[in-house]
Amino acid sequence: MATTPRPLISRLSPYFLARLRQNSRLLGSASSEPRILSPESQLESPDDLHLTDSCVRRMKELQADEGGDKMLRLSIEAGGCSGFQYKFSLDDTLNDDDRLFEQDGIKVVVDKISHGFVKGATVDFVEELIRSAFQVLFDMTVILTYLIDHP
């Protein structure tokens, strides 16, 4: 009886996961806290967009200051070192081509084109000595684990 070969991603994923764990330990900064997704926030689908607790907390502060139900709009613009950059803004308008993601009452809106660049990402809010900003993080361990479990 002939067995069908496992897909290449399933065979290579354990190697990639081990390398990602090793690299994250080597490249991790002692001054920054680790940004690991909790099990309950892991990808239900590769299209999901997640928010960290610090992102939710900052958005609630901004909503209290603005006095409304503002959404965080994430979009992609041309520019930056890799040819594009992330742009964050507060918005109260939902367009026809927008994807809406919600977590703990906080809404994030991403247009259709930008969504293709941020699938499976996590939006975080980081406070450092010289700046504070929202940022987009990709946890490749979670993405590869999803690909292993859903060949």
TrEMBL record:
Swiss-Prot/TrEMBL keywords: Iron, Metal-binding, Mitochondrion
Top-level taxon of origin: Eukaryota
Entries under InterPro entries matching the protein: ATAP (IPR016092), ATAP_core_dom (IPR000361), HesB-like_dom_sf (IPR035903)
SUPFAM superfamilies reported for this sequence: HesB-like domain (SSF89360)
Compartments, record wording: Mitochondrion
GO CC annotations, alphabetized: mitochondrial [4Fe-4S] assembly complex
Segments crossing the lipid bilayer: none
GO terms for biological process, alphabetical: iron-sulfur cluster assembly
Keyword Metal-binding among record annotations: yes
Chief location bin: mitochondrion
The family this protein is said to belong to: Belongs to the HesB/IscA family.
Family matches, as PANTHER family: IRON-SULFUR CLUSTER ASSEMBLY 2 HOMOLOG, MITOCHONDRIAL
Name the record gives this protein: Iron-sulfur assembly protein IscA-like 2, mitochondrial
